[in-house]
Specification:
The protein is mostly helical. Helix 2 packs antiparallel against helix 4, helix 5 runs parallel beside helix 8 and helix 7 crosses helix 8. The longest helix has 42 residues. Strand 1 and strand 2 form a beta hairpin. A two-stranded antiparallel ribbon has the order 1-2. It has 2 domains: 77 residues; 68 residues, Orthogonal Bundle (Lysozyme), CATH 1.10.530. It is built from 8 helices and 2 strands.
């Protein structure tokens, strides 16, 4: 009996992970169903005499009702699958940004100032997100008041974004940092 209960607990989790894994396939099936529903509805629209002919009216009206309901339900499911796929893609993009190496995160954030920012960060922290010198933390060794104003975080991307905000607020100057890119 305990094994049966365990199986019943594991099955929904497995089904959930499988349904998450094949959202694209689900969306494809939904789109295919919608296409078929539209074809039937178009056929009945162009052959509307079937709805009034006593020989076919009952069946034609039933098909009209079934395919109309199916189309509405499937459109909702397809929309939900599209949203889920978009959210998953966004989460993957954010995860890849957050998992970026310090060098990649700095260059993505600072753009044309990439080399200068790398030089400053290399000097300030050795390109280490966990670098600390008293109150100064992270890639760009920002102090507590700067972190409060411009943000901070554990990842290289978060720290680079915060430093970039500080850099821009300083008139795109490296003045606030002890290390300069040309030194």
């Amino acid at each position: 009996m305990g094994a049966c209960a365990l199986i019943l607990l594991v099955l929904p989790a497995t089904a959930q992970s499988q349904s998450n894994a094949d959202l694209g396939a689900q969306l494809t099936r939904h789109l295919s169903t919608m296409k078929k529903d539209r074809q039937v509805l178009r056929f009945l629209e162009t052959h509307d005499w079937l709805l009034s002919d006593p020989r076919f009216a009952v069946s034609a009206k039933r098909q009209l009702r079934l395919h109309t309901q199916s189309l509405v339900r499937t459109q909702q499911k397809a929309a939900a699958a599209k949203v889920a796929l978009a959210q998953r893609a966004k989460a993957r993009r954010l995860a890849s940004l957050e998992a970026a190496s310090p060098r990649t995160a700095i260059c993505r954030t600072f753009g044309e100032y990439c080399q200068e920012a790398l030089a400053v960060s290399r000097c300030e922290s050795g390109l280490r997100t966990d670098a600390q010198n008293g109150q100064y933390l992270g890639l760009f060794q920002m102090g507590s008041s700067e972190r409060r104003l411009f943000g901070h975080g554990d990842s290289a991307s978060e720290q680079a974004r915060a430093a970039h905000k500080y850099f821009v607020a300083s008139g795109r100057s490296w003045g606030p940092w002890s290390c300069k890119p040309w030194a």
